[in-house]
Amino acid sequence: MINSTYPHLRPQEKYELMYMSCYPPARTGCLLTAQERTEIPYFRLKHRDTKLVQEGAARRDVDDILEYALRMATGSGAPQDEDIAMKMLMDVIESDFPSNKRAVAANLASFLFIHRTESDEDGFSHAVELCQLSIHLGHYAHIAVFLFLMCSQEFDIVLPLDARADAGPIGVLFDKYDRFQEETGFQPFKSTHCVACGTKRQLRRCSGQCAPFRKPMYCNRECQKADWVKHRKWCVVPVIEEDPDKDTAVYRLHLASAG
Ligand SMILES: [Zn+2]
Ligand SMILES: [Zn+2]
Ligand SMILES: [Zn+2]
């Protein structure tokens, strides 16, 4: 499991992670600083008392139902009860609440299937199906990125473009990730594979000034060169002297520390 530290997190840390994985679109979530990722959920948790959330949920206020489920799922501000949280989320998913709310509920349920204490044998496939539902409802959040990374980095699933249509919900995850990656330059922080050739050996991170969430892993110079056409858009490299052949200058600078 990529996130084997989850059970050891404090309730508030679980809340932060679950919130950030399920609510903001992945595209904006990945641009947030580490501080913002902590503060945004913290303010949310502190500014509204659980008692008010509970009352709102009882009145069928959908935001409060989702919030109450999030608190119960993580034991943050409310006693932990994963089963009740899951039931509340399933109710929202099957309701006629607006699709953006149902999409968040599907993400939260997806997250809970992966992280819950007593894991279900087919929890992973439930999680993927719920995540696909959320994508279908127009919401692509970090939980979808996380599930894609589990498939590709941990289960070593490779899905060529022409195999995706027949791969069901997993095919959707792969397609959406590719588009997200192209739009944002996103690279997984703890990637286990070279982005260019897929090997797991001798990986080094790009030494340019690309943002941490955009740093690709390469096995060698050839792979870094091959990927440059894609990565150059996201990698700001200081060019010391004007060189008519800028790309070459960039490589030299860039790879000097890679040895
Ligand atoms: Zn099941
Ligand atoms: Zn490589
Ligand atoms: Zn770079």
TrEMBL record:
Residues 194-235 form the MYND-type domain. It comes from the Eukaryota. The keyword Zinc-finger applies. Pfam families: zf-MYND. Signal peptide: none annotated. GO terms for molecular function: zinc ion binding. SUPFAM superfamilies: HIT/MYND zinc finger-like (SSF144232). The keyword Metal-binding applies. InterPro entries: Znf_MYND (IPR002893). Keywords: Metal-binding, Zinc, Zinc-finger. This is MYND-type domain-containing protein. It comes from Agrocybe chaxingu. The lineage of its organism: Eukaryota, Fungi, Dikarya, Basidiomycota, Agaricomycotina.
